[in-house]
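mind reviewing this stuff:

——
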Amino acid sequence: MLKNLDPLLNADVLRALRAMGHGDELVICDTNFPADSVARQTAIGKLLRIDNVPASRVAKAVLSVMPLDSFVDAPAGRMEVVGNPDQIEPVQQEVQREIDAAEGRAWPMASIERFDFYERAKKAYCIIQSGELRFYGCFIFKKGVIAPPETQAKS
């Protein structure tokens, strides 16, 4: 065990999160996503897993150590519902709450068409498959930066 780290963050996931650079993308997907075949095309070339927990819990763990990219308009995206791109599924609402909590502000996710999501996922740094059983539990996060201590606001 390590102090101050979410226990869901296993060694493989921590290694990937640490190795990612600013602008690299990470996918959190549900159990229906073609995760293994798509993950073989990512930068690390293998699937990472955090089993038996919903996507929102995986997002909370990841966002506890990974900042989102504040230099882009949409550092987080969700797979849109086929035929109804404006519909927000409960799993997506849950992940939205985790994003807002981690970032300390409302930061709406972009909507990504299903096949565009697949193509973008292939170019991601890594894919983490959750134990999410609900449809549309698929998300893309773009890694941001952590400012040096001397540039952070003093409290």
User: Anything to note?
Assistant: The mean pLDDT is 95. Residues 77 and 110 are 4 Å apart (CA to CA). The two ends are 31 Å apart (CA to CA). The first helix runs from residue 11 to 19.
